[in-house]
User: Fold these one by one.
Assistant:
Number 1:
Amino acid sequence: GLNRQQQGEILAKLSALDLVSITPATVGMLSINLQLELPPATVGAQGSSGKQAFVSHAKQISQTSQDVPYTPVMPSTSVVAKPKSTRGRDDELSRIFAEKEAQQAMQGVMFAQWRPSANILRMLTQNMQVSEAFAMGLRDEFVVYYMDKERRESPGGWDQKFLKWVKKEHVQQQTARARAQQQNQPRNYAQNEEARYHAREQRQQLTDAVLDLGNTDW
């Protein structure tokens, strides 16, 4: 008998010569209809011997079965999907870039009329015991310094830098004041010792005068 591949080849040739018509019958099955009368053009081209040979093959196939099972071949489409890890990494990078662009859009350089926010001044006075007058006294120096730098920061970034600037200056002022007090302590101690010495001398003189009964000068 003919195997499936040979049957398929013969069916293809017969179909090309219009000797058979193949139509789907049911799911997984084909209906093969024989057309044993060749068209005139086909007969002239192939000859009577060719016709007889194909008719013989067609009869063999029809005796085997007119309903031939088949497996439809679907066209293949290739879709390359990115791994989940790659997609997640791309989404994270996109989010980071978007945040960076938004931050850069809000940034600006220092300008002469800049002032710290009310929240920063309140934080300095209430939480750090730094007077507003002391903080604002440092504003001009801060503004000039960063105008020369041409640095770009967000409004919140400038507030944070000013806060650090004021804290640093305040600590330096407190340190200098404490150092000056320590330097003045030895001199004050010497002055106090001298005063105590004179007081002792006066008490001693008074005691001696009281004990000297013959001395009436005091």
Number 2:
Amino acid sequence: EDPLKPQPLKLPALYPSLPFLLLLLSLFSSSFAAFVGSFNLPSIQARQVNKPLTSLKMSGGRVVLWFRNDLRLTDNVLIAEASKRFLASNSALSVLPVYCFDPRFFAQSQYGPRKTGVLRAKFLLESVADLKKRLQGVGSDLLVLSGKPEVIIPRLMQSGEDTTVLAQEEVTDEELRVDRAVKRAIAPLGGKLHLLWGHTLFHRDDLPYRQGLTDMPDVFTPFKEACERKSKVRKCFPYPVKGNLGVVPEDAKKLDEGLPSLESLGFSAQEVEGAAKPDPRSVLQFVGGESAGLDRIQHYIWKQDCLKDYFETRNGMIGADYSSKFSAWLAHGCISPRFIYEEVQRYESQRVKNKSTYWLIFELIWRDFFRYICMKHGNEVFKIGGIAHRSWKWEGEGEAFQRWVDGETGQPLVDANMRELKYTGFMSNRGRQNVASFLTQNLNVDWRLGAAYFEETLLDHDVTANWGNWMFAAGLSGGRINKFNILKQSKDYDEDGEYCRLWCPELRNVPVVKVHSPWQMSEKEQLDCNVKIVSYSELRDKMSANVQLYPKPVSEKNPGRYFDDGQPGRVPSRRQAEVGKRWDKTADRWMGKKNRSSNSKRQDYMDSHM
């Protein structure tokens, strides 16, 4: 049965008469509404309601709730389905929530970096710990185990007992391979894997496209407009009522291994020590878990009332509240896009409805777009030619890529953003667009190296949003190719150089007229600012110990591409035209004015991290 379809509530004969119940309910509802209304700040917890659940003819058996990147109780289709089955079995069903720390997702990727870095691993551990605590709060528990799910989940099954494994459906290859492995492992034991859709704002079945998404456009704007016209956002699932998931059996509890340490996940003592000391320059001290995610929503939308100004402030780079910062909790499933949508609707009805409130929903639709692009195109998203199948030749790992990773390109805006990412796991939307453009369009480095590095370091890494965004940044979506003028962007979005100086302290004494282009300083100016602009080799050798060192700009590549036939200059005319329109380094002039056109679609292609 469809878990989203409302079902009738069947009352046993021992219940009081229905009119009497309705009378009590009306009295309680009015009193409760008055109580809630007495507060100035709407509480997001007030919407935890008991919703009628369907009845299934079941008795006994087990349901394994396999959590992955859906680490929440609020608006969780798995929780709703498990509760429904438990109540339908007259409490005879055993519900076993489980999280598996799969070693494959902490191993080295084929591109070099780990698939999960230490900062995101810490956030994940906090999220799993919070999920366990919240499950215990409703009378259940979470079994935390380390190992491959296809090995662990069969251990939770009992011979002769029907077992259904519930999990949220994924769309990308590595996750799908794990799904297939679990399905094969439990089949001989009589187990079944039941996958449910739950990651998106718009449900897959409500999209205005054919099954398989063959008619879905590969461009965002028509996708957004079609969804807004023809699709509706489904209501959130209720927070589980205490007891509706039953009690985890004692035989299963004995298998619980508890949270692993960061060291046991493969991180060095130095990495663990660094993760334990948050950088004071970080925009936010991120803490994983549904509780922290709900607190962030309460803070940003209601307490600080930031939502009304979101559109105007979202391109900032310093501070906690220039943007929502919901992305890390969304990526781990600690909060759902539908819950944010309902909070925005409530804000619009109680405070204000404007372009800013719409724009937050706009960002959620971007997240949907990339997930459905990955669903439509599969592994093409991860191939070097992208979904456009373009045969450009890229540079591999080398000095240029390493300088980009280390934040030593000699371009202050790029370096500041890359250092912020390295030390905090976060980077602003504006920063992501610029560093991705610089790596792919200026340095001609294989975009997949950038995507893999982001996968390791980002707190808010979501496989579909990250790899989809990088493919678009590399110009491999089949649409417009965007190349950012880094110097102009730096002057536009960090007008006084405060951000560049924050993360590049070598430049702390450089005046605003040169902080965006320190290579233009004379030797006397460098001396006055106690900084020396040096070659990369000299920077590596640390030859000048008595003065701050900052590198000269890395050598940039020709914006053209060499095709596989080896003939230089064969660049598609549209690409050449687009690059020409957006890039004229010598003609760039700083007039002291900000260029933040609200009509520019170009600036928003990488917005889905919020």
Number 3:
Amino acid sequence: MEDTKIKQIIEALLLAAGKPMTLDKMLEVFEEHERPERDALKTILQEIEDSCTDRGFELKKVASGYRFQVRQELSDWVGRLWEEKPQRYSRALLETLAIIAYRQPITRGDIEKIRGVAVSSSIIRTMLERDWIRVVGHRDVPGRPAMYASTREFLDYFNLESLNDLPALTEIRDMEGLNQELTVEEEKPGGNVIEFPGETEVDEVHVPDEEELAAAAIGTRSMDEILGIEPEETADDGDEQENADAEKVERDQAEADTGPEQDQADEHADPVAEDSATNDDEDDSQDSESDEQQYNS
């Protein structure tokens, strides 16, 4: 079969499938006598990808295979076709998902230890329902807590081919103001209205839920703290510690040198104090005798 015909078939398959297709799945649709070689199929896919350079869509390889998708820079216009707004996720959910992606497999308790706050059950449930994470086992400790890891669906959703495509931790560390740039926070629900007798107008009181409280608690934390990265010791920190240690040694040596001298001074001072006390007693005795003689006279 000619390459041009194979190319048309592959394009039709990708459009009709509605989901990523692997190379094996594409090869299955061909009869044995017309089936192209695997390397030849890869070459055809590369040609299709190159032909989409100036188009509004692209051929993208993700974890589950190949798919056609709208270019990201055009999403604002395409999104206007749907009245329903795209799902927004809280900062707490995204941070929990990031920890699982980078530190998997990991238990819920480990996540809470890294974040410093409790992980809401709704967060875990949402990620499980979306097939972004799955239970891969249980840790052999009392209670046997579940261990979570990311899935292919997670990679597909975030347009990743593998976990190697995740940003390196060093790149995340260099990002300044990352928390302030997160604009995907969940919309706050309407608050509860409290009525007071005799008042015609009342303020709307918003009662924060567990996720909002968790987000507020970690709003000022750096990504290093969120992911449990130990801070690197700088040269200045090392110099300051060495200077502090040297000063402590000098103080200890000075105290050791002055100790014997102080003891000798105390020894010399004691006899003088005793003589002074004896002289005072003798003077008091003489004064008493003199007073008695004057009285008898």
